[in-house]
Amino acid sequence: MISRRKFLKLFGAAMAGGIGVVGYAFGLEPLVRLRVTHNRLSPRQWHNGPPLRIAALADFHACEPWMNARRIKQVVDRANSLNADIIVLLGDYLSGMNLVFSSLPNSELAQALSRLNAPLGVHAILGNHDWWEDEAAQKRGKGPTAVGEALKAVGIAVYENHTVRLEKDGKGFWLAGLADQWALQPNKGLTRGKHVGLDDLDGTLAQINDDAPVILMAHEPDIFPRVPDHVALTLSGHTHGGQIRFGSYSPVVPSKFGNKYAYGHIQENGSDLLVSGGLGCSILPVRFGVPPEINLIELY
Q: Which domains does the chain carry?
């Protein structure tokens, strides 16, 4: 099977012959477009939870010029305008592209995100690129990561196998966040031959001590088949919807499940998963058929 990196490079080369399409995929869709995708969900496990508006932002991949401070400000302003009860950040704040003029400093990125505002707070997990771009963390084989510390410094809670119990209108719910499933790269630091995850699903969910409903943040959606059915909703990013998408099909998805968990709302065995198309780009600065998006999820 062709790798995502190889496919995106071939796609970029093939599109060089179509100026209009190239201009859209490299310039308009990733740089200009920004949509709000609205899902109203009623998971059976949420029957005793409060009506809740969640704004989910994933996969910034901050860099110049594709996701610079000005673009992040635009995203933050749009997210704040949605009147969400809670904002969740689903990982991959750092760039994973070679074709960039410069990366955005962690402090500048965190300061831009510090303007996010919601009554129940802003809550974050980390993604694979937040680990892969951090050489010191790779060598240690553990955190903290530089971008994680920068987010904490501006008051954004960062979850790595942790939970918190929150309340709205006198009704409680749990928010759980996993550490990254692909955190340590092959043949770097303490790992050899394969990606090593730092996620602990069982240990994270064991921290829950009552029957209030649970929302789980997990950067990669591949964890979903292992999520127990008492979790009301799993929120993920990572895939970018394939980054290149034709209708409901993406030729390459960074998941062992292919298109199964590539994008959108998925129901399986009585459980719900929402995979964001994300905001930025990885490998190449190209998006086609899956514009950058903020997800607004209403639970009722």
A: 4-299 (3.60.21.10)
